[in-house]
Structure prediction request, 142 residues.
Amino acid sequence: MRPSLLVPALAGALLLTAAPAAAARTAAVPVDEITVDSTAPLTTTGHPTLTGSYRCAPAAGPVFLSVSLSQADPRVHHGIGSTSALCDGATHRWTRTATGTRTYAAGTAHVQVSLVELSSTGLPLPRVHRIAEGSVTLAAAP
Prediction:
């Protein structure tokens, strides 16, 4: 092979071997995701049970999944609660049931779900990983 062609050939071979490794590293990094199931059953007392799934990349600090719901006024969300989230890159199911005196009626409602990490050093400052919003149908108890 002529010396003038050797350098481009070696550079091309190096790029071809590096590209699959870079693609594998990119594919291995999970993306934070949240889903909300489209229907939520209401208990006989008018408390909805919201469900869905989430996936998040490993985090340095604790991560929480928080759920809020609005029905009458879309500008006013009421907290349904939060729970710790396991951020290991795998998909996990979540469930939150509303409690307390606030009740909901069968029909459409707006739900917001967020994954928030608290910093592990210094003050526990929040860092939002992901927020998902959407409509859910609250189904009357049979």
